[in-house]
Design goal:
This protein has about 300 residues and is an alpha/beta fold. It folds into 2 domains: about 35 residues, no CATH class; about 220 residues, Alpha-Beta Complex (2-enoyl-CoA Hydratase, Chain A, domain 1), CATH 3.90.226.10. The protein has 11 helices and 9 strands. Helix 5 packs parallel to helix 7. The C terminus is likely disordered.
C-alpha cells in the first residue's frame, strides 16, 4: 500500500498535471517577432540582441546598471494625501494605486537613488512606466523635487530617466501643479551650477515632456523612443494630415534639434559618466564593475 501511495500515485499525478512555466520565460521582439530568452535579454540590459530594439527596463535595474557595483541608497520622499479628489471612474483610484504598488513594489511612479558613477557622486530618478504609465501625480512630483534638492545638497549631478504618459488624470489640477513646481526645482539646480541630464526613454509624452523632461542641460534619447506632447495618432486626427515617417521618434527629434544625442542603452552608462565628469570638471576614476545580480523578477 505504501508503494502505491508513495510511488505510483505521484507519478500518475505528474503525468496528468500540466507543468506551469513562467509567463516571462521568453520575450517576443515587437519588431522582428523573434523569441528571446528572458535571462539573455536581462543580461543585455533589455535590448534585443539581433534587432537592437529597446524593451522597457525595470526602474530598479536601471539604478543598478547606473551606479558603481550596482550599489545605491534610496532617497525618502515626503508623503502626500492619497486620493485627494476621491476620484472614481470604472474603479476607485485607491484600488488602482494598490494594484500598481503590488505590481511594481514601488510606492509611486518615481524611484530615487544616490551613489557613485565611476567614483563621482550622482543622484538619479527613474520613472517607472509600469506604475500607472509613469504618470505625474503629487507623489511623483514630490519625488522629482526631493531628488533635485538632494542633488543640490550633495553638490552632485542629477540624472533623470523619463518615461511617462503624462499627468495623472485622477489627481486633476493637483497633478498639473507639479509642472511648475518641478520647474522651480530645476532653477535651484541651475543656480547651484549643477548638471541636470535627462534620458528620454520610450515613451515620454504629455505634461512630463511639457515640463521637466525637456528642461535639462543635456538631453539624451534612447533609440526608437516616442517623445512628444500629444501622440502621433491624436495629431493626425487633429490636423487631418499624414505625419512624416518616424515622426516624434528619437532619430527624427535628433535631426530637428530637439535632443542632443541618441545613445544605445549599452553605451549609455559610459556616456553619462563622461558627461557628468566633464560638466563638473572632475577627473574620472576607473571602477571595476562586477556583474549585477539578476533581479528578483528574473529569478
Amino acid at each position: 500500500m505504501n508503494w502505491l501511495t508513495n510511488v505510483v500515485r505521484p507519478k500518475i499525478k505528474s503525468l496528468l498535471t500540466k507543468r506551469e512555466t513562467p509567463d516571462n520565460l521568453w520575450i517576443k521582439c515587437p519588431e522582428t517577432g523573434e523569441m528571446v530568452f528572458h535571462r539573455d535579454l536581462e543580461a543585455n540590459q533589455f535590448v534585443i540582441p539581433s534587432s537592437g530594439y529597446h524593451m522597457r527596463m525595470p526602474a530598479r535595474r536601471r539604478l543598478e546598471v547606473l551606479f558603481d557595483g550596482a550599489k545605491y541608497e534610496t532617497i525618502p520622499v515626503p508623503g502626500v494625501p492619497v486620493d485627494p479628489l476621491k476620484f472614481r471612474d470604472e474603479r476607485r483610484y485607491t484600488d488602482r494605486l494598490k494594484d500598481a504598488k503590488a505590481k511594481t513594489g514601488n510606492e509611486d511612479a518615481v524611484l530615487l537613488g544616490h551613489g557613485t558613477l565611476d567614483g563621482l557622486t550622482v543622484v538619479a530618478a527613474v520613472q517607472d512606466f509600469e506604475f500607472m504609465g509613469g504618470s505625474l501625480g503629487m507623489a511623483a512630483g514630490e519625488a522629482i523635487i526631493a531628488g533635485m534638492m538632494t542633488a543640490r545638497d550633495k553638490l552632485a549631478p542629477f540624472i533623470l530617466f523619463a518615461a511617462s504618459g503624462g499627468a495623472r488624470m485622477q489627481e486633476g489640477i493637483l497633478s498639473l501643479m507639479q509642472m511648475p513646481r518641478t520647474t522651480v526645482a530645476i532653477q535651484a539646480l541651475r543656480e547651484a551650477r549643477l548638471p541636470y541630464i535627462v534620458v528620454l526613454t520610450n515613451p515620454t509624452t504629455g505634461g512630463v515632456t511639457a515640463s521637466y523632461a525637456m528642461l535639462g542641460d543635456v538631453h539624451i534619447a534612447e533609440p526608437g523612443a516616442l517623445i512628444g506632447f500629444a501622440g502621433p495618432r491624436v495629431i493626425e486626427q487633429t490636423i487631418r494630415e499624414k505625419l512624416p515617417e518616424g515622426f516624434q521618434r528619437s532619430e527624427y527629434l535628433l535631426q530637428h534639434g530637439m535632443v542632443d544625442m541618441v545613445v544605445g542603452r549599452l553605451e549609455l552608462r559610459a556616456t553619462l559618466s563622461r558627461l557628468c565628469h566633464l560638466l563638473t570638471k572632475t577627473p574620472k576614476v576607473q571602477v571595476e564593475e562586477p556583474e549585477a545580480a539578476p533581479t528578483e523578477a528574473a529569478a
